[in-house]
Design a protein that fits this description.
- It comes from Plastoroseomonas hellenica.
- There is one protein chain.
- The protein is of the alpha/beta class and 450 residues long.
- The protein has 2 domains: 366 residues, TIM Barrel, CATH 3.20.20.30; 70 residues, no CATH class.
- Helix 1 runs parallel beside helix 14, helix 10 crosses helix 12 and helix 13 crosses helix 14.
- The longest helix has 19 residues.
- It is globular.
- The structure holds flavin mononucleotide.
Length: 450
């Protein structure tokens, strides 16, 4: 991509902050994940900073075991459900896109299609669905299963689920609801398209009871890192989240995705890769480093050990903190997050780190960027211009502090460099992301026939 092209920005809503110990820091709001006032303030702030999307991650479960660990690391333990939260934010924001995570492993496609179509209408075309397949047994146990189904099966179900959702969103042609008082006709019956689906996971005969939404279809987000995940992303995603440490890794991932797009008859312009980027901003590089170290020092050993064990899918609870982890403890492969697993295995095999060194270093696949607004802008520019991504999924280890400093310092710096839009884009989130509104398939066919 050409130097100087603009970038797209999403921000991860993360309550007190994305750092595992953020809630312990005296300057964060430990109640933020549950506070609509806080979400509203953050989404409005991101909107002022010309972010394109406020993104909400999720898993449909509270942890019910290992509470000694989770009571110190309350991620996903007490937060607002994403669809509900997006509906509320749709009413209190005007421009910013709203991305919400719903698991295709534990939901019904009809419900999802209807809810997201509704929010697209409520928000004036600003909603996106992050399709995940979920990565924990706690969620599975809330939905009739003892264990999470195997990785490959989850992606098969997600593919069928998504295919249904996309078709349901096309239940009606754009101009189906004519509300013609003279004829006494509310809709044109010829413009309804009934879905008749029977597959391995779902059986559906029906149509949505809501008209085609402002974006045609909500934007589709995915973040698969595995082979199956990347294929799925290439087949359907319009925004993809990456989690890579270096420009080279991210560019390689992006190149692979672009190659795969062809397999599904898609073009590179139909995809936006947003690189996950945790950011700490301060007035000087040293202050930013100090902030980071303050947060790291707040990690309780129970949490450090537990997080590593969770992502490695191994029990590390009885290992000494200050000795290397024995290689024979390593499971052969990952069923949850393959990328996180690989990162830890590398630290154990190649660097022979102790447990404590590992947990003070481990950052779930992405090193936190620390620096002044100008330094942060430099790095974002470098990634963007190297073709490593189209923009960023910015995470703030301390949410309010980070987002405020970004909006006040990094946004104007990026604008000065011509790397970020100067004003809000008119229209929908698709317009802001430069993604086409998908024509109704029927409309596309009849146009082609003309
Ligand atoms: C920025 C980002 C956000 C994510 N958000 C969620 C989430 O909210 N819920 C979830 O279950 N997984 C989430 N994931 C995990 C991905 O959906 C996916 O499972 C992971 O990248 C591993 O890919 P794989 O399943 O293909 O191995 C996220 C990943 C990234 C990079």
């Amino acid at each position: 991509m050409a130097a100087g092209e603009q970038m797209y920005l999403a921000v991860m809503a993360s309550g007190p902050g994305s750092h595992v110990a953020a809630w312990l820091h005296p300057e964060t709001d430990a109640r933020a994940a549950l506070s609509i006032a806080s979400h509203t303030a953050m989404a409005q702030l991101a909107e002022r900073g010309l972010f394109h999307m406020y993104f909400i991650a999720d898993t449909p479960a509270a942890r019910t075991t290992k509470l000694d660990l989770y009571s110190r690391m309350p991620i996903y333990m007490n937060q607002l459900e994403p669809i509900t939260l997006m509906a509320a934010l749709a009413a209190t924001t005007r421009h910013i896109g709203l991305g919400g995570t719903v698991s295709a492993s534990f939901y019904e496609p009809y419900n999802l299609a209807r809810q997201f179509a509704s929010i697209d209408h409520i928000s004036g075309g600003r909603v996106a669905w992050n399709i995940v397949t979920s990565a924990n047994d706690y969620a599975a146990q809330n939905f009739g299963l003892d264990k999470l189904p195997p990785h490959g099966d989850r992606y098969k179900r997600a593919a069928e689920f998504t295919d249904i959702v996309l078709k349901l969103w096309d239940s009606w042609e754009d101009d189906a609801f004519i509300r013609d008082r003279a004829q006494g006709l509310f809709f044109d019956p010829a413009k309804q398209h009934v879905l008749d689906h029977e597959g391995p996971y779902f059986k559906i005969h029906g149509a949505l009871n809501i008209e085609r939404s402002p974006q045609g279809r909500p934007v589709i987000i995915q973040a698969g890192a595995s082979e199956a995940g990347m294929d799925f992303a290439a087949s359907v995603a319009e925004v993809i989240f990456g989690a890579h440490e270096t420009i080279e890794e991210s560019r390689h991932f992006y190149d692979q995705l672009k190659t795969r797009l062809g397999k599904f008859g898609r073009a590179p312009e139909e995809l936006r890769l947003l690189a996950g980027m945790p950011v700490i901003i301060a007035d000087s590089a040293q202050e930013a480093e100090d902030k980071y170290q303050t947060l790291q020092a707040l990690i309780h050993p129970v949490v450090g050990r537990g997080r590593l064990g969770m992502d490695l899918e191994a029990d590390l609870s009885n290992l000494p903190l200050d000795e290397p982890v024995p290689e024979e403890l390593l499971p052969k492969s990952a069923n949850f997050h393959k990328k996180f697993y690989d990162t830890i295995v590398k630290m154990i095999r190649e660097e022979k780190l102790t447990l404590r060194q590992m947990y003070l270093r481990y950052e779930r696949a992405r090193r936190t960027l620390r620096g002044t607004p100008v330094q942060i802008a430099d790095t974002l520019q470098e990634w963007r211009e190297a073709g490593a991504c189209d923009g960023f999924m910015v995470m703030f280890p301390m949410m309010e502090d980070g987002l405020t400093r970004f909006v006040n310092g990094v946004t104007p710096e990026l604008q000065r460099r011509g790397l970020l839009r100067q004003t809000q884009t008119e229209g929908t989130m698709r317009d802001a992301l430069g993604l086409k509104r998908p024509p109704h398939p029927k409309a596309a066919l009849s146009r082609a026939a003309e």
